[in-house]
Amino acid sequence: MTTEHAQQAEHALTPSNYIAHHLSFNTKSIGEGGFWTLHVDTLAMSVILGLVVMGLVWWVARGATAGVPTKRQAFVELVFGFVDDQVKNIFHGDRHSFIAPTALTVFLWVFAMNAMDFLPVDIFAKFMHSLGFDTWRAVPTSDINTTFALALAIWFLMIFFSIKAKGLGGWIHELFCSPFGSKIWVWPANFLFNMIEYVSKPLSHSLRLFGNMYAGEVIFLLLGLWAATGLTGTVAAAILGAGWSIFHILIVALQAFIFMMLTVVYLAMAHESH
Asked: Considering its fold, how many domains does the chain have in total?
């Protein structure tokens, strides 16, 4: 075998190479030794989708009328009302000052990021390659950094509102004196119990969204591999792909809804005392 043939065999597209390529991030190292590594594709897609969502809402709000609403205005009002009703059922304070707008922002942004999973992976990859990017992940929520950053932001807001509602002394008192009582010998158990709760919230909040979106992305890749095996595989992959796409619409919306609801629940819990 010649050197050229050996290199071609080495770079031949195998199923593992195909999946690894589509699951690779466009990274940029910062600092000495590359200690900080940015996922450029995740950051870019997150910012772009956030601007698109805000721009669409602004566009609809700018053209809103008090009379008969347009179709787009009616749709946006339906989404606004749906989110506000969910918040009203959980949070019983002044929800319109911060909680409801935050819930709406989280729902629309996460939904938009999840929906990028519907883009045909090969076509999108070829498009990005034509722009000079060899690797580019289109679904920000299939990156654990995105979901964990969102969950951590909610976690810090939860602590902030808890301290704001109870005072710093009241928050510390709650850490050591609930749920098992205020006796000094149960302080360690109370503190350990509360620390486990505080640590588990961002972990479960982020991993649930990441796991579902990452799994969905992998399934689309596996169906794409099946389609490349021949006519039978193409037909089977097309049928299963259509079915999975329909089912995935529910997953995309449901995961955005669950992430929003957990956000509201955590912020509502911050305003409550044990």
From this structure: 1
